[in-house]
From TrEMBL:
Enzyme Commission number, as recorded: 3.1.3.16
Keyword Hydrolase: yes
Protein name: protein-serine/threonine phosphatase
PROSITE patterns listed in its UniProt record: PPM_2
Domain of life of the native organism: Eukaryota
CDD domains assigned to the protein according to its UniProt record, in alphabetical order: PP2Cc (cd00143)
GO MF term set: protein serine/threonine phosphatase activity
Xref: Pfam families: PP2C (PF00481)
């Protein structure tokens, strides 16, 4: 307890720092996807000689914009009547602060001992944290890979905020491997810029504080699926 309090006193931002986590592991032709937060893994598949592709999400988005996630969180905290706020744009937030229901860190929404100065006022809660609201335990989903599976896009929430699964898969499919992630990043930023009556080049010159209000961080990893042993399919 003393160690946590000391760290909060020297660097109060630690209590409000948090991150989602998305991980993929292939073992014996099974892809295991672990997710805590609103990052997402999306699979593309098509047969040899086929033009049409299929798109399959391989993870669950833990974001309170979905009614199911809100219901899950409320069921875990049946006596907490202050779990959600809605802003003027109709966007839900957990205690008015974050949209995710799973996250690493964000301890100010997990332990009431951090709900005090020197934590910034915008994070301090009027109502005590009686039990952790967020948790960092990932959901792990298995997927048996087949010869028709082509690639999996692992993307943070900033990618999927303004990019659909279908759009992302189409961009990667049409791009060379060496440039697919960059092409997808540019498309996501193009979409974001248009929503704010800007163009992609404008985003490069915005002050960081203002840019953070326009789009979340975007991380992309593309796993191409090659050379699966046919006898295991």
């Amino acid at each position: 307890m003393a160690m946590r309090t000391t760290k909060l006193g020297t660097n109060p931002k630690l209590a409000s720092a948090g991150s989602c986590c998305l991980l993929g592991l292939v073992h014996n032709n099974v892809l295991y996807v672990a997710n805590a937060g609103d990052s997402r893994a999306v699979l593309a598949k098509w047969g040899v000689g086929e033009q049409h592709h299929e798109v399959h999400p391989l993870s669950i988005d833990y974001n309170v914009k979905y009614l199911e996630r809100r219901n899950e969180l409320q069921a875990e905290h049946p006596n907490d009547l202050n779990l959600f706020d809605v802003n003027n744009d109709g966007i839900y937030g957990v205690r008015g602060c974050v949209q995710v229901t799973k996250a690493i860190g964000d301890v100010y929404l997990k332990l009431d001992e951090f709900n005090r100065e020197p934590l910034e006022a915008r994070y301090r809660q009027q109502h005590p944290i009686l039990q952790p609201i967020l948790n960092a335990e990932p959901t792990v989903l298995p997927y048996v890979l087949s010869l028709d599976d082509r690639f999996v896009i692992f993307g943070s929430g900033g990618l999927w905020r303004h990019t659909t699964n279908e759009e992302a898969v189409s961009i990667v499919k049409a791009s060379p491997r060496s440039g697919a992630a960059r092409a997808l990043l540019k498309k996501a930023l193009d979409n974001t810029a248009r929503r704010h009556n800007l163009v992609y080049e404008d985003l490069k010159h915005l002050p960081l504080a203002y840019k953070n209000n326009i789009h979340d961080d975007i991380s992309i990893v593309i796993l191409y699926i090659d050379d699966l042993p046919a006898e295991n399919q």
